[in-house]
Write a structure and sequence with these properties.
1 helix, HSP40/DNAj peptide-binding domain, mainly beta, 4-stranded mixed sheet
Length: about 190
Amino acid sequence: MSKKPRVCFECGGKGSVIGNYGIRKKCSKCDGSGCQYKTACTECEGIGVQRLTVTEYIYLPQGVKDGQKIRLHQLGHASDCYTSLPGDLLLTINVMESEIFQREEQTIKSIIPLSLTQAILGTKITVDTVDGKINIVIPEGTQDGDTLVLRNYGVWAFDPPDTYDPQELRGDHVLKFEVRIQKDLTEN
């Protein structure tokens, strides 16, 4: 491991020199870093940074959409220069599809199967939401294709202004009822 680096005598610490026809090129003595070591570090090859693959746990904000990009500060590549800070890492979000929910902007939709008896007589059932399970009342006489809107059970606003209550900007959850007729199993 070397001590403190010294300024490259060839480029004067700029990392580049003027070559033929007045064109700047990378300094060959310091490989563009602007500094040299008497004894180069074997781990970083004398440039002051190491190439590592790291695993980081990151927080994804609520309301993020498929294809959206998120910038993570200083988790990218560092330049090959002594004391440089790493750049930013730009992530493109790939949201997996759900077996239960479909998303349209801030609205969540799901299909709720009902038996013919439940649709005719009405009932209480438990449905899945992004906030967990809730109990709802199915009114009697529910038709195939009828919907029920659960206000403020949808997707949160991605980056709401500070002047708004985030709950006001939250989407809805639309339940679409699908009446399924079941055959009597005792029939031959």
